[in-house]
Amino acid sequence: MAAPAQNLKINGDRLWDSLMEMAQIGPGIAGGNNRQTLTDDDAKGRALFQTWCGDAGCSMGLDSMGNMFAMRPGQDPDALPVYMGSHLDTQPTGGKYDGVLGVLGGLEAFRTMNDLGVKTKHPIVLVNWTNEEGTRFAPAMLASGVFAGKHTEDWAKDRVDAEGKRFGDELKRIGWEGDEPVGARKMHAMFELHIEQGPILEAEGKDIGVVTHGQGLRWIECTVTGKESHTGSTPMAMRKNAGRGLALVTELVHEIAMKHQPNAVGAIGHIDVYPNSRNIIPGKVVFTVDMRTHLLDKLNDMVAEFVTQAPRLCEAIGTEFSCEIVGQFDPPAFDEACVSAVRGASERLGYSHMDIISGAGHDACWINDVAPTAMIMCPCVDGLSHNEAEDISKEWATAGADVLMHAVLETAEIVE
């Protein structure tokens, strides 16, 4: 496969203008966005994206989970398409770039190909995956998960939000439920451009992150059971303090993650304390441990150490411990040929780059199970994301979209 010419680059100003125009739909209250999935603003963002794709000469496909597929034809009608894309939905207090950069960076690649009359053997498809964030309808990466066979469509459409509204009903309400069967499409490869959502690239002064792996994840829901009693009148030696068990287990999670460095993390996020009264020693605490690393053996070792040590710590202070794994996926290793295409594009274009592991889950992590896949990351200021203050530079966005276009064109095979 011939590599694209070094001087083939996207229009960074046009990309930036598109990002700013999309950000006007579903504005947040502090400069970011609140364009949650299957809301009226999501529908408006989808409509604008469809208009732009039509203007770029693309046909639009829509499956029954609302995934949008804009296709630029190739010269070989029998060649499988090369895919690129990400998501347009945001967190309730989200930024302007998380997911959106990957979609509009792909759109800008189409526009540049059109400007320069570039033709490819393989068709190229730009996708907007539904409900990547999972903030309104859990879990995250829901529609790409159905596409990859991780969830059934019926199960996904029965997910409800905080107001009890069904995913399937809301998808119909906003008018973006298609007829195409989910997962029927076959892919030659897929590339996803995304902001890093972490501080590494900025700290290292690199333009591009070549994503080699995603992190595997285990969510462990834990319960520490003690005995509710008065905080003032219960002697210290006679207490069965579930809150103290939480404290000990919190430190254990940190110790296990540090013991398995590098590239391992662990923390306790969600916590419910019962009865949650100022003058009652907690009788029960329910919380979730989040452990992640890109090495499956390491991840399993971390979990095994946790489920062995946590009950002992709690038993020693007169409390009981129980747990179950409530969420998990094994770490994806992205396709070596696709990763090489990203690395080669970065070098060819003169962008500084480094290999990196994705700390967050992305649609590409599911698609990696059904097609050769890779990711491209660009820096974000202070590593801040899922926050309205999320920020990137026009130069970072341009570099990421340049590398995306080159990797996609090399894989789709330019026709002279």
Tags for this model:
23% strand; 416 residues; 35% helix; single chain; elongated; 12 helices; eight-stranded mixed beta sheet; alpha/beta
Outline the secondary-structure elements.
Blueprint (H helix, E strand, L loop, with lengths): L11 H12 L16 H16 L3 E4 L5 E5 L9 E5 L13 H17 L2 E2 L3 E5 L13 H6 L5 H5 L9 H7 L15 E7 L4 H5 L3 E7 L1 E10 L3 E2 L11 H18 L4 E11 L5 E2 L2 E10 L2 H20 L4 E10 L6 H14 L3 E6 L4 H5 L5 E6 L15 H19 L1 E2 L1
Note down, in words, how this protein is organized:
The chain has helices at 12-23, 40-55, 100-116, 142-147, 153-157, 167-173, 200-204, 242-259, 296-315, 336-349, 363-367, 394-412, and strands spanning 59-62, 68-72, 82-86, 119-120, 124-128, 189-195, 208-214, 216-225, 229-230, 264-274, 280-281, 284-293, 320-329, 353-358, 373-378, 414-415. The protein has 416 residues and is an alpha/beta fold. It has an eight-stranded mixed sheet. A four-stranded antiparallel sheet has the order 10-12-8-13, covered by helices on one side. The chain has a two-stranded antiparallel sheet with strand order 4-16. The mean pLDDT is 97. Helix 3 packs across helix 12. It starts with 11 loop residues before the first helix and ends with a strand. It has twelve helices and 16 strands.
